[in-house]
Write a structure and sequence with these properties.
0% strand, 50% helix, 62 residues
Length: 62
């Protein structure tokens, strides 16, 4: 039990957190893979491009 208002859990993800965006991207790609039929052409997801963008934003690489 937290009795003091100054003591709060520090592991809270905020909406601007890029980790949330990356997690959502990975889950969406897993859904696409699971629902993809073997005989059909897979929809484009631009995975490599998105991974590069997420890493650039997360690590602040120019």
């Amino acid at each position: 039990m937290i009795a003091d208002a100054t003591c709060a859990p520090s592991q809270i993800s905020y909406p601007q957190d890029t980790k949330l965006l990356n997690d959502a991207r990975e889950i969406t790609e897993e859904f696409i893979d699971a629902l993809h039929d073997a005989g059909e052409e897979k929809p484009r997801t631009y995975r490599k491009k998105r991974v590069r963008i997420i890493l650039t934003v997360t690590l602040n690489i120019n």
